[in-house]
Specification:
By secondary structure, the chain is mainly alpha-helical. Helix content is 46%, strand content 9%. The model has no long low-confidence stretch (mean pLDDT 93). Bound molecules: iron/sulfur cluster.
Amino acid sequence: MKKYSCSHCRMLNCKHQDREYPKFCPTKELTRDDIIEIEKLYNEDNNKEISRISAEIEEEFYCKYTRVEEIIEFAARLKMNKIGIVACVGLMEESRTFAKILAKHNFEIYSVTCKVGAMKKNRNNWFG
Ligand code: SF4
């Protein structure tokens, strides 16, 4: 039996909330207890502050700032001074450019590529 998920959805009722949810919608699967649990997680540790600032950035700068500018603003508001970059090795040039921009804004950068560990993709290299 074919499994459906959000990528098959044309209703997007989770966003619009004035339509119907499709039969396979994961939102429909959530119980009241699930939602209470999720709300608790949002309030744990520093998740609440991260969520709040993330929402502020979207509200103030969506379609005004580039994603790079949004990240800089987000990190600044959270008073971060170190940013990690995880990038595909095929995007190293872009990653370097991003790192340079962040460095100009006085962030300390630590970056890794998807090839860290230098493992070959053959069967003999898989654990177990
Ligand atoms: S959560 Fe439900 S309504 Fe939202 S995109 Fe997924 S399937 Fe569609």
